[in-house]
Amino acid sequence: xxxxxxxxxxxxDLTRTHEGFQAGVEIPADEDGYVGRRCAACQGMFRMLxxxxxxxxxETRLTCPYCGLDGDRNAFITEAQRERLHAAAxxxxxxYLHDEVDKMLKRxxxxxxxxxxxxxxGVSIDVKPGRxxxxxxxxxxxxxxxxxxxxxxxxxxxxAVYGTxxxxxxxxxxxxxxxxxxxxxxxxxxxxxxxxxxxxERDAARAAGVFDRLAxxxxxxxxxxxxxxxxxxxxxxxxxxPALKGNVFQRLDDTAQLFSAHCGIDLPTTAGLDVxxxxxADFARRHVLIHCDGIVDAKFMSAVPGSALQVGxxxxxxxxxxxxxxxxxxxxxxxxxxxx
Length: 340
Description:
Layout: E1 11-17, E2 20-25, E3 34-38, E4 45-49, H1 50-55, E5 62-63, E6 70-71, H2 79-109, E7 114-117, E8 122-125, E9 148-151, E10 158-161, E11 167-168, E12 172-173, H3 176-191, H4 199-207, H5 210-237, H6 252-263, H7 267-271, H8 273-291, H9 298-303, H10 319-338
Antiparallel strand pairs: 1-2, 3-4, 4-10, 5-6, 7-8, 9-10, 11-12
Helix pairs in contact: 3-5, 3-10, 5-8, 5-10, 8-10
């Protein structure tokens, strides 16, 4: 029986090369049919449907859904998969080495007992085949389970992620509207966490100001979400865009002027005047939170003339304020996305 027949299950297509051996090592999928991938740059974990990954042409480079790093499929193997590959290589080497040593001894001694002497003292050498190593079992792969799956609207491949994603592993950058809407949904889920805490923990977190900070952070993130989306839309729609400096898309009046002049789109009318007014107020609130440590200043009062607040007061953002900001941003995103 050949030594190849003693290899563990999971090793297949063993062939000799001029450098040694080449073999396939099975990476089993989980119960949902997904296999893990790990980005070497950001260390983000994601999963891909095994059947679809196997169907991707070997020359296709994959993309990290979080940071956008691209590389061949071997660049995204996980720690557990690497351990399995090392165990497979050790198993092949162990069985092959045993076979070669056995052959070497048989060639040298013919497999029989021999007595040799150099004049007066004889040495008897009894050559017997060594016991073949028992086949190893390749280690199982235990990784994080699938939490949230995405079907790419461009290439129809499925993948699972554990956070906000801006890229499809197979076809690269996703549409900004998709990633922005996911970020909005994630913001809503974060705000709703307090509803799922035990009463004692919820009261302790509320007393520590956890939920207030979460609401304020969510409102601040709204500006980033809006900026990402409007920048993408402007670059896609403007026929001859001007050179832009600074964070122009964080300034709503400038953003509206750019869309009007270069895209023929009236953003306030598209969003709805009431929505646009509230979004402008949220941008002013974000300025106070980031640049004034939450203390209302004259610039805020100028941007939100109908506010009941006064200069010097502390701005308080609640869960309802944050959810409304997310709703208004989603309205702008959806309405602008629907335009031809």
